[in-house]
Structures are given as C-alpha cells and as structure tokens.
Design brief:
- With about 325 residues, the protein is an alpha/beta fold.
- The chain has a single domain, classed as Ureohydrolase domain (Arginase, Chain A, 3-Layer(aba) Sandwich).
- It contains 8 helices and 10 strands.
- Helix 2 runs parallel beside helix 3 and helix 3 runs parallel beside helix 4.
- It is globular and about 55 Å long.
C-alpha cells in the first residue's frame, strides 16, 4: 500500500455501518484537482419514461459500497496503490428543467476533465450520458463506446422531446461524440415498435450484440475481440444496470427479462483492461424498486471493477 494515495476507510478502523457516506468511504474532495480518477454522482430521474427513483441511485450505491475492500482478489488490481481517487460528490442538477440539466452536467464533467481526472459517474437515468459524452468529446475528440444495456437508447424523440433517457446515443452520434465504427451495444433485447429500434444503430455502423447472442456462454472472448478492434482509441464505457436480468437487478426503471448475468457483466468490465478508458458511468439504479439493496450493491461492485481497469492501475 502506498500512503501517498487516498485509501478507503477500512473495516478495522471504523465499523462498516459508520464513517463517511462517500463511495467506498473514500475521502471527499471539493474538486478533481490532483486526482487521477473520481467518483461523481448525478442524482437525476426527470429523463426517465417509466418508473422513477434513479435520483436516489448515487446515494444508495454509496451506501452499499461500504463492504468493498481496496484490493481485487480475482484480478490482482490494486487501484489505490497507483491512482489518487476521491469522491467529488454530486452535480447539483436542476430538478425541474431537463434541458438545463444537460448543460449543468456537461459543465460539471468538463470541470473534472480539466484536471485530467477520469470520471466514474453514478447515475441517475441514462439521459446523463449524452452531456457526459459531449464533455468527453470536447476534451478528447470522438471516442469509442462500449454500451452495455437492454435498450439501444437511439430514439429520435420521446413524447416529442429530443432529450430523455431513450435518446442519448442518437444525440451523441449527431453531436459527433462517437466513432461509429467503434461503438458496441451489448445485451439489447425486449420488445420494440419497429426493427429500426436496433437497426438504426447498425445502419450508422454500430456493432449490435443482442442478449440472445450472449445466452449460455462466457463473454470473455467477445470483449477480447472488441478490445482488439478498439486498440488504443480513447474509449468510454456506459453501463445500464438493466442490462442485467431482473433476477439480478430488479431495482431499475425499465426491466427486461432474458438479460445478462452478474458473472457475464463482470467479464465484460474486466475485459476492458488495456483499453484507453477516459470515463465510465453506471446508470438507472432505482432503489425504491429493490428494498433489499441488491441492485445498488451490484452497481457499487461494478463501479469498483471499472476503477480496477483504468489506465495506470497497478496489479500485484
């Protein structure tokens, strides 16, 4: 352990049910200055179309993160030995104005990126990924995207509105945030309105991998192939918790049966090791629909897995 870097508060220093309410009980920071990576919350659900509650996602994810220890026993990743990490709190969105939220989020993420800090974002509904990608593209140019989700989120409008949790990747494409040939949408499934619900992505050059292509198999070879195709291109990872089957993650707004398993999504995230990740998010955790806390617990652990594959992480 390198004492130059922030460490999560250990269970032998303070009981797990005590201490700060930050992600993994890390130190809180007022800004991203001096940080290599940070956890940031966006407590928003005004872009959601069905069940609300994702405004409580960041708080519950942090609460369920208290059991996560700093060393990844499976991969030997020791992120707190080589990266300076803190929790920079929540972006103060406007609860009553969704277009205003987009600008607020974009500015908030841009402020983090200005310090060359990699944001790991706790959502919040999936609307938040559009302004995050805007800020990412302004910093890094168009990026590769690994998008793990039950839904393609490429609607043109929802109730006549261009901004909602079902539209972020169409908006991101239109804004020029993405390298279309290096966009991978994994786990898509469920019912739709027309074939275009998935085919729009294919027509733009995205690679669409439906959930049916993931059933009954390890996804390690799939993500290895994706990693090879992306190479050194700067990459963003967006993970919607509803990519998991509702048996694993019932606490979300738009659940779809036939989803991925917990081991499969861990394989996907661990398979991102070696990519030039410039940011990641985990969205659509809605605690009111999972009183056990299992969905948020899963989300917290997946965010730790994301931290473990960031550039610069040491393995020992």
């Amino acid at each position: 352990m390198n004492n130059r870097f922030n460490q999560p508060l250990g269970g032998n220093e303070m009981p797990r049910f005590g201490g700060p309410g930050t992600m993994m009980r890390l130190p809180a920071a007022e800004s991203a200055e001096g940080l290599d990576a940070c956890f940031v919350g966006i407590p928003m659900d005004i872009g959601a179309s069905n069940r609300s509650g994702t405004r409580y996602g960041p708080r519950q994810i942090r609460a369920e993160s208290v059991m996560i220890r700093p060393y990844n026993m499976a991969t030997r990743a020791a992120p707190f030995d080589s990266l300076q990490v803190a929790d920079v709190g929540d972006i103060a969105i406007n609860t009553f104005n969704l277009p205003a939220c987009v600008q607020i989020i974009r500015d908030g993420i841009a402020g983090i990126l200005a310090h060359d800090c990699i944001p790991l974002t706790l959502g919040g509904d999936h609307t938040i990924t559009y302004p995050i990608l805007q800020a990412i593209a302004e910093k890094h140019g168009p990026v590769a995207l690994i998008h793990i989700d039950a839904h393609s989120d490429i609607n043109d409008t929802m109730f006549g509105e261009k901004i909602a949790h079902g539209t972020p990747f169409r908006r991101a494409y239109e804004y020029g945030c993405l390298r279309p040939d290096l966009v991978f949408q994994i786990g898509l499934r469920g019912t739709g309105y027309t074939a275009e619900d998935f085919d729009w992505s294919r027509d733009k050059g995205f690679t669409v991998i439906p959930a049916e292509d993931c059933w009954h198999r390890s996804l390690a070879p799939m993500i290895a192939d994706i990693r090879t195709r992306i190479g050194g291109v700067k990459t963003y990872l967006s993970f919607d918790i509803d990519s998991l089957d509702p048996a694993y993650a019932p606490g979300t707004g738009t659940p779809e049966i036939g989803g991925l398993t917990s081991p499969q999504v861990i394989e996907l995230i661990r398979g991102c090791r070696g990519l030039n990740l410039v940011g990641a998010d985990l969205v659509e955790v809605s605690p009111p629909f999972d009183t056990t806390g299992t969905t948020a617990l899963t989300a917290a652990n997946l965010l730790f897995e994301m931290l473990c594959v960031l550039p610069g992480v040491q393995y020992r």
